[in-house]
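Give me structure tokens for this 163-residue protein.
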Amino acid sequence: MTEKAFQDYYPEYFAHCYGCGSMNGLGYQIKSVWDGEESVCHFQPKSYYTAISGYVYGGLLASLVDCHGTGTAAAAGYRSENRPMDTEPPLRYLTASLHVDYLKPTPMGHVLEIRAKVKAVKGRKVVIEEWIVVNGVITVRGEVVAVQVPEQLVTELLLKDKG
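Here you go.
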């Protein structure tokens, strides 16, 4: 049996993100899970996600760090409250800060392994350290500061979208 991904717990109204939303058929639809104290996600870039021929576009790499980080933040939020991810109210996190360091070009044609570790959970704020690995080599390091979205803001944004 395969473990359910963090993103599979997002309510439908939270599942439209281009990077991690299951409701976005054109998006990446990444899937992140716990691997001990780290989280992991695997992603196979399509050939058109390129910058220089043979290498992955840096914007894609940044968005993978971003979405894997916010998914990990949500899972960490549930862990810190000692409750399952399918309990109410749902926790959803958005990026307050994204930092990405490109250590070396990321070659195309390989599955990318995005890993993350929770550095801190401070109230509604979660800090996530991340790295992207290709064939055992770290090509990208990043950090995401994610903030839990207040339920009231979600309601306001959804109502504004309908109006």
